[in-house]
Amino acid sequence: MNTEFGPKIIVEFSNGVFITETVINTWIIMAVLVVVSIILTRNMKLVPDGKQNVAEILVGVLTSLVGSSMGKDKLGFVPYMGTLMIFLVCANLWGLVGFRAPTADLNTTFALSILTFFMIHGNSIRRKGVGGWLKGTFFEPVAVMAPLNLISEVATPVSLAFRLFGNIVGGMIIMALVYNALGTILGGVLPIPIFELGIPAVLHAYFDVFAGVLQAFIFTMLTMVFVSMAMD
Amino acid sequence: MEVYTGLVSFGWPWFFQIANTLILVALLAKFLFKPVNKMLEKRKNTIANDLSTAENQRVEAEALRADYEKKIKEIRIEADAILKEARNKADERAKEIIQEARNKSDDIIEKAQVEIERNQRNAYNELKDEVAAMAIMAAEKIIGEKMDDELNEKLVVKFIEEAGDVKWQN
Fold it and tell me: Which of A37, A52, A56 sits opposite B28 (nearest CB)?
């Protein structure tokens, strides 16, 4: 059994920069998403046909989600939040097709949560000015709360990142253990891995599909709510 | 040999993943959100345009209809007036024609009467002359000799005239 659950290093350059399978898988997902987007939005017509309907429904659902959770005045966030949602759903489900999910890596989830962190405070400053941001973020409801507020603000990206990472990587590890256990039930007597055929599907449905989609939704929703709250 | 990083470890991939996320956002914004939103906007505008055009055309059609209805009404009134005038004219003309005919017939009757009168007078005069001549001839026969022509004729004519004044008038 492979006891290494960390992402595999694919390339390591001489100057110490290395690329893991997380990054490679992310590139693959990115390429797929961009190609699918281009195909879906090619030859768009005023009267939509099949694939154009898919694109319009997708964008429509994401737009109404952003509109209802952030407010109609913040529809400019649709491309970021929509992309985040699409990417996270694809990344979390990536484990289903046999690859390592990019979100089963703290580097990915922390990259996303740091972006959320900067969006929260950047937009707060942009909307309220530095004074308003300081006051609204740290000195509410009273100035004494500032240290706690600081911890709270720092905790936001950490909790976001670890929640997503923990869910996905937990599922991944459990699935690896289950596959291993099922493979050793008969001690490798049977040449055909018969137990690994149907039983893991139920667990995949829970850990990858259910938890994956749910965590993608939670991450995106929390990002939207935090950014929107910081701005209002 | 396969090299793994730790399960909970930070490294270069963090920077890669930040860059990847931003790049993906930019790409999807360009290839998915922008074209779809553009199309939705275009469709919205087209529908709004079509609706307002239809509304304008409806209003226009309504105005045209009202205009035509008014015109038709005017035309009907005018036609009625023309018909009435024509009828009046025809009536007048008919009356005129009848009047003319009546006048003409009156003239004809009058002329005929004058003619008749003249003929009567002529006939009377002729008859008178003849009767006078016959009376003279008869008187000559009765008397047996020739009367003094001139004197007797005057006498007879006078007699006849006196008698005729009573007798021949009717």
Answer: A37
